[in-house]
Design goal:
Blueprint: H1 11-26, E1 34-39, H2 43-55, E2 61-66, H3 68-77, H4 88-99, E3 103-108, H5 120-133, H6 135-142, E4 148-152, H7 156-162, H8 168-182, H9 190-211, E5 215-220, E6 223-229, E7 236-237, E8 240-241, E9 247-248, E10 257-259, E11 261-271, E12 276-278, E13 281-283, E14 287-291, E15 294-299, H10 304-311, E16 320-325, H11 331-334, H12 342-345, E17 351-355, H13 370-375, E18 384-388, E19 395-399, E20 405-410, E21 413-414
Parallel strand pairs: 1-2, 1-3, 3-4
Antiparallel strand pairs: 5-6, 5-19, 6-11, 7-10, 8-9, 10-16, 11-14, 12-13, 14-15, 16-17, 17-18, 19-20, 20-21
Length: 416
């Protein structure tokens, strides 16, 4: 395995991505520590991020690296009982670091289908154990206790999956350029590009917030769905102020405007418009039915058993924690690529997320405890999994508190 930057990846754009991750994604402050997680294949980007972090005045940068081959070794040779365990000690430590002010940056990538041929029961058990062990750290992230962000690196295995018809170097180049374009680092005005983009997303969020809709109604092929919105919900987009007062961009890239649904007020049916790549399984053609906020029936043309195991993670796994609006004209959608990676695919289409809600998606949410969030309709779960339900065939209406209908999207485009 080479840890040098591939000739297929533009080093100037890679450096810009690292700078945007530190300056815009995290808005890292002088003296602030940083926990950085990534695959070993992403070391070229990790090294650039560490360089920019220290240039920005970082206190201590701690990289935590994973490796596909060691992950596979566990499934092929590991003791069966070990699949019901996870490194909770590490996540407890991460939660403590966030409480003490450390920022968090994750580099997405790796092989999305790494575990596709492994025992699905072991995969499901390991995922559940990981989700439960990660709870302390995940809660700090979903509550925006600290500034955090995610960026991506064009791993060769990921690139081969996105462009299977191309030689590896060409596939890496195609994926790298798509990442750079979606992350708005294709030219030397990357930081300024993000400022303008955040302003436009903020305008959309402000309009939706002013409407204070009671619900959203989705119609389209296989979809007739009403999503009630949580009491006192708040629309968020682009840059978000964490509880430590630092404004960060949690996702690089991002095209979404999102808020919290009411966990008991979702009714109807919805069909996914893109496959969901989840822990090595590609789940295609998801179709579900909701009653009183919970999924009562779920099917998929492939990966259905994995989907149903996800839904059985806990009581909150069958309920929604996020609803997000994304125009079909987003750069990621227009690329025509299926990325097999939620960070990108969720920004190609309007989507919903099973599981944990974000406390920041409530007005005054930073002052609310779990019980108050639950009273307002916020969901709690050990998972948070986004899947796409938008397309150029989906219409969305906002339902006002008095029952009137206001067009929000028509054929996947903003209606206002």
């Amino acid at each position: 395995m080479s840890t040098q930057t591939s000739p297929a990846i533009d080093p100037v754009k890679l450096d810009r991505l690292a700078e945007v991750a530190v300056r815009t994604g995290l808005n890292l402050q002088e003296g602030q520590d940083l926990i950085l997680s990534a695959s070993v294949t992403a070391l070229p980007l990790v090294r650039k991020i560490v360089e920019h972090a220290y240039k920005a005045g970082a206190g201590l940068v701690t990289p935590i690296l994973s490796d596909d081959q060691t992950a596979l070794a566990r499934y092929r040779y590991g003791h069966d009982a070990g699949f019901d365990r996870a490194a909770g000690w590490m996540f407890d430590g991460m939660a403590r670091a966030y409480d003490e002010g450390a920022a968090r940056l994750a580099v997405a990538g790796g092989d999305p289908m790494l575990l596709a041929n492994e025992d699905p029961d072991k995969v499901a058990r390991a995922n559940k154990a990981m989700a439960l062990a990660y709870t302390p750290a995940r809660e700090r992230i979903t509550q925006f206790k600290t500034n955090w962000s995610i960026v991506a690196y064009p791993d060769p295995a990921w690139a081969r999956l996105v462009s299977p018809e191309l030689p590896e170097d060409e596939a890496v180049h195609v994926l790298a350029e798509a990442i750079f374009a979606a992350s708005r680092v294709a030219d030397d005005s990357a930081v300024a590009n993000w400022a303008a983009h955040n302003a436009e997303l903020g305008r959309r969020a402000s309009w939706l917030d002013g409407q204070n809709f009671a619900a959203l109604h989705y119609t389209g092929p296989g979809t007739n769905l009403t999503i009630g919105l949580a009491d006192g919900h708040k629309w968020i987009a682009g840059a978000t102020e964490a509880q430590n007062g630092i404004s960060c961009n949690p996702n690089i890239p991002t095209e979404e405007v999102f808020t919290t649904p009411h966990k008991h007020r979702v009714e109807g049916r919805v069909a996914a418009t893109k496959p969901l790549s989840h822990q090595g399984t590609l789940i295609r053609d998801i179709a579900v039915e909701f009653k009183d906020g919970a999924i009562t029936h779920a099917t998929a043309s492939s990966g259905e058993s994995v989907l149903n195991k996800v839904l059985d993670t806990d009581e909150g796994a069958r309920r929604l924690g996020e609803v997000a609006l994304v125009p079909h004209a987003s750069p990621i959608s227009q690329s025509g690529l299926l990325f097999y990676n939620t960070l990108f695919d969720e920004n190609a289409a309007s989507h919903i997320a099973l599981g944990q809600c974000y406390s920041t998606c409530f007005h005054g949410g930073e002052k609310m405890d779990r019980d108050e969030i639950a009273r307002r309709g916020g969901n709690a779960s050990a998972i948070h999994i986004d899947w796409m339900i938008g397309s150029d065939q989906i219409d969305i209406d906002g339902i006002t508190q008095s029952g009137e209908r206001v067009p929000v999207m028509r054929k996947g485009a903003w209606a206002n």
